[in-house]
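Model: Ready when you are.
Researcher: Fold this.
Model:
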Amino acid sequence: MKASKKPVRPRVPMPVQPPEERIRNFDEVATGYTLEMAAEEAARCLQCKKPKCVKGCPVEVPIPQFIAHLAAGDIDAAYRTLKSTNSLPAVCGRVCPQEVQCEGECILTAKGQPVAIGRLERFVADEYMHRDACGLISGKPECPLIDPHKKVACIGSGPASLTAAGYLAARGCKVTVFEALHELGGVLVYGIPEFRLPKEKIVAKEVNALRELEVDFVRNRVGGKTFSIGELFAQGYRAVFIGVGAGLPRFLGIPGENLNGVFSANEYLTRVNLGRAYSFPDYDTPIIRGRRVTVFGGGNVAMDAARTALRLGADSVHIVYRRTVAEMPARHEEVEHAMEEGVKMQELCAPIAFVSDAEGCLSGVRLQQMQLGEPDQSGRRRPVPVEGSELLLPTDLAVIAVGTRSNPVLLEAEPELDLNRWGYISINNDTGETSIPDVFAGGDIVTGAATVILAMGAGRTAAKEIARRLGCQPDD
């Protein structure tokens, strides 16, 4: 008889705040691996000769190599390997859906749990955060010599633009980032809550590192309103990257949607995150602290809104979703954390009307129960209403998190930009170039709402082509 194969060791658990504690603060939920825990988890990697995990990563991080360096205790080499393709590893290690990307392709998945690639990425990046800014961004000990004649403008300061800016600045290009809001970071700042992605500890550190590479940041400048693409070229910029995201909210289109107490997730999370409403009265930002909160949607944004409402003192929080919990597009970890914290999942239900009280404020939402029918074009079973199965859910604060559309401000001001049928910018997928020569785009303004890592991959693709055209320093 053949000897039984050695069983796969389970992954090292991630330390987290207990649910009963974390719902009372906005501190990061996952507290991170120790060096010993990271080394133990890194030792689980089989160092495959043909690593499928790399193909599962949108920016093709050399995953086995960085994990091998970590297992050997060489944090510097592990970080340099990460930075060779990933501009924001501390961000990606926290918010990327590794379970359907790199970890989803790990060979250990067939026998047990995959290597915790995202957790190891986060550990290495956090360990390296105390290093100098040049190494933080470029992965090299010395800063490059910036050529002031190779000027590039990035519109927006989200993950796509920050990635493009970091790649170009590390190769000697002079980059200016134009941001419409008063703080830098785009969706990393206004969209993702503090308990998932710390702003000062992580996002601000990455932005400040870019400043050390002579990247200029101009705030309160709205592309299409306070400047045009043509004006940027007239000012000597030789290429423009558009990374403005897709921040126009979608609504449900049901009666009562204009009642007091109904918010889009964009507004709700922006008030709390960017406006620091969670830190009242230190920040005097108004926010409704609902007692009975209902969130509509099943993605990461819905989880963020629901968990934020709990931390703001809600007595109960429901998430209403047309399909089942198992089919929610949110990260599994976020769904699990939400349920641990007390969020109630109202699955197989769809809203049909908001109900007001005598003063015109939200008092409830009428729901229609659903059942799953035949698969639709997406391949998922289509929700079908169950006749005569309406119910009323008491609600004094509703948050709609059912997706976004492209913001038309810049697009309407630049009619030469070709758009696709969904209203997003059309590009050459190989270079990121738009219909306007030397104007590039990437991220949600091209794909629609997607992940941070996909936006970063788009920024990197465009930056490579810009660097080639401008004759910036090539990769080693």
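Researcher: Now this one.
Model:
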Amino acid sequence: MISRSSTIERLATANDLLLAPFGLTEVDLGKTLGIIGQRQIDDADLYFQYTRAEGWSLEEGIVKTGSFSIDQGVGVRAVTGEKTAFAYADDISAASLNDAAHTVRAISTAARSDRIKLPRRTVAKSRRLYDSLDPIGSLDSTAKVTLLERVEQMARAVDPRIVQVMAGLASEYDVVLVARLDGSLAADVRPLVRLSVTVIAEQNGRREVGSFGGGGRFGLSYFDDALVKSYVDEAVTAALTNLESRPAPAGEMTVVLGPGWPGVLLHEAVGHGLEGDFNRKGSSAFSGRIGQRVAAKGVTVLDDGTIPDRRGSLNVDDEGHATQRNVLIEDGILKGYIQDAMNARLMRVEPTGNARRESYAHIPMPRMTNTYMLGGDTDPREIVASIKKGLYATNFGGGQVDITSGKFVFSASEAFWVENGKIQYPVKGATIVGSGPESLKRITMIGNDMRLDSGVGVCGKEGQSVPVGVGQPTLRLDGLTVGGTG
């Protein structure tokens, strides 16, 4: 549900942390934007941010690191045409705001001939997808260390071959305030937590690694014993499976991708190509293809920033627009791109709530939130059983994509060789090579088990990192190229 009432509550929090301590009011923000607006500017905004972050790590049964940081500042931006001027400061004051305003308005040398009337300040509509809590304070330090110790104890108890355990716990409390040239004010209070576990298993002198974790926008009490045990079991299973792995065969073959985190391939190979800036510039393999078939029938891809408590979800994006559930591909037909305000204006469409920035020191750009493919109607066991000879990949490590060509390379961290519908043995060293647009057309079976990842995703673009989510059902793709070691 979109409303203004939840924004008012968050504006009060933002005012207490970002304006009042520095003697600023909403009137001062209007004056700063007024300075920018004295030139012929298409858009401008002020982005205030206060971030507290804490991290703990445990290795060999002892706490190896503990960190705590506080960062705050403001970014000031002016946009004219497709040009952006940006300045930022960690000094929040009327003087630094005015200096930044005079700096960025220099992007336009044309003064307005008419008298400026500042728009009346209005509260932007937003969502209420998560609680405005401080997760750092949701457990005391002793309880946080105890949680990590419990992770290690659980992992070592699963199997004697586990020789090393590393666990990490991260918490963040992020408050943002956005004031726009059109008079709108928006704020968000964003909690974020993540628990991760990595184990090393050893057998007959061979060592293998397994990792897992999860999190989202809630407090640390989310990590109860049952959930922690599930993370540990996943990590241990991965490590023990890899102990039995053989070199991966290479060549063109059928590939089945498991549900959940393997959606990271969809994120990289397809999602980035659907971001508005690449398509406005014509540099994406999907440029100019709205309304065309770009995937097999049955393939529907969404970017949805409105899923409660999810790592990639936001009440408002980093330009103050409410997030949305955006259908990008529907039954194989390209329906739209994800947009920030500048690219939407230049492409003559509406923003989609996808403007994101790493911090107040960065400019916003169109980015994904939670990107996933909807499920089909096939039992995933039937999909695996349909493989005559091929690869069943259940987990992925890193990957990269070339936006212009759409070509990608991904490494499978957990995969199995399948013959005549039966899993034969785990394999190691498999890389999947292909073209994002082409791979969408090679999908021949879609499982009924759509699943989102556990909440660990981080997306990089032009040097900026933001938290994201991915997901998909079990998928069969025919004729993919697999690079192997066997």
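Researcher: Key takeaway?
Model: The first strand starts at residue 2 and ends at 3.
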